[in-house]
Amino acid sequence: MATLYLWQRADITSFGPDVFSDTQDANGGAVGNSSFTIAPGASAVPVEVTDNEAFFNNSDTSSQVLTGATVFNGTSFAANTAIKPEYAYVVRPAGSTDPGERITVYGVKIGNHIEGVASDGPLVPGVSYEVILISGNSPAAAYSGLYVCFAEGTRILTETGGQTVENLRPGCRLATADHGLQPLRWIVGRRVIAQGPAAPVVFAPDEQGGKRLMVSQQHRMVETCKGQEILVAAKALVGRPGVTIQSGGTVAYYHLLMDRHEILFAEGRRAESFNPGAEAWKNLAPATRADLQTLCPRLASGPFDMARPVLGPNAWRRQMGLGPLCPGVQDMRTSAYESVAVCGP
């Protein structure tokens, strides 16, 4: 099961040719001619989806369904109703020329009609977004790829000391565990409802001597397992003293992209920078891949090498002699997190 965070079609107004028309393909007339705005005060709505794979895609017409009865966009849908991304555009805030502000948005069909909109970046109610190109008419996106990031308010160690993640800008030099001060190349944030797999993992102030830290459940932290440093998703640590899930309200998460996969210092703890996994990379919008490759030429050959070996959440808990993931913490592994390390003899 996965959770999508969708904007209701009724909360979106198009200016010019309809951006999210109730059709099979994207509206070519909207490119360069249309914009849309989400109504001020609107919120993204969590929608539970049952799927037999890690990707939300257009071609899945049988196993990708609503988990339970759902009321969305003013309509009641029965459990097992088909849901899929019908088409995708690349948009940006009106007037922006910054490649880092481009966002891929998906027209989402529930049953027989376009009912909602998903995105791979932050859509802010009241802001006008202009359509700059069609990303595709048969899109796919990793469910969990959007939550590998730091929460708003997290202080990241920079050359001038700790700075909150939302105030970082490309060009800032961040302290890394392996390569000293390195420039931040790209940052993007997204605000979501803090429920289910989008609820943050919270490290209490006294955990490992650091200050209070919030990260997404999939964000990987440096741990030591049988003498070897490895990376493990934060959700695997839930249940240890001072490590909890905090549900309720909203949370803004931020991606931080460097020239390579780095280990950063977040509130005194070591955590990874952004590194799209192989399958997630292939499913990024072409325009986004091109932008990131321009900013980080090493990405031209695909995702970065990992800064540390990676161990899956349940595998790490078994190695440490712990039980399975705590109740309520979903094991949402995707191909972006499938690399498994052998942790000691």
In brief, what are we looking at here?
This protein has 345 residues and is mainly beta.
List keywords for this structure.
single chain, about 350 residues, mainly beta, Endonuclease - Pi-scei, Chain A, domain 1, 9-stranded antiparallel β-sheet, 3-stranded antiparallel β-sheet, globular, disordered C terminus, Hint_dom_sf, Hedgehog/Intein_dom
Taking all Cα atoms into account, the compactness measure Rg is 20 Å
Q: Architecture of the largest domain, according to CATH?
A: Beta Complex
User: Percent of residues in helical segments?
Assistant: under 10%
The average pLDDT score comes to 79
How many β-strand stretches? 27
Largest sheet: 9 strands, antiparallel
Task: Report the uncertain regions.
Answer: 144-148, 327-345
What would you say this structure looks like, in words?
Residues 144-148 and 327-345 have low confidence and may be disordered. The protein has helices at residues 278-282, 286-295, 313-319, and strands at 2-8, 12-15, 35-38, 45-50, 55-57, 65-66, 70-72, 75-77, 83-93, 103-110, 113-119, 128-136, 140-142, 150-151, 155-158, 161-164, 173-176, 180-183, 186-193, 201-203, 213-215, 220-225, 228-233, 243-245, 250-257, 263-266, 269-272. Strands 2-3-12-9-10-11-1-4-6 form a 9-stranded antiparallel beta sheet. Strands 14-25-19 form a 3-stranded antiparallel beta sheet, with no helix packed on it. It has 345 residues and is mainly beta. The two termini are 34 Å apart. It has 2 domains: 2-145, no CATH class; 148-319, Hedgehog/Intein (Hint) domain (Endonuclease - Pi-scei, Chain A, domain 1, Beta Complex), CATH 2.170.16. It is globular and about 55 Å long.
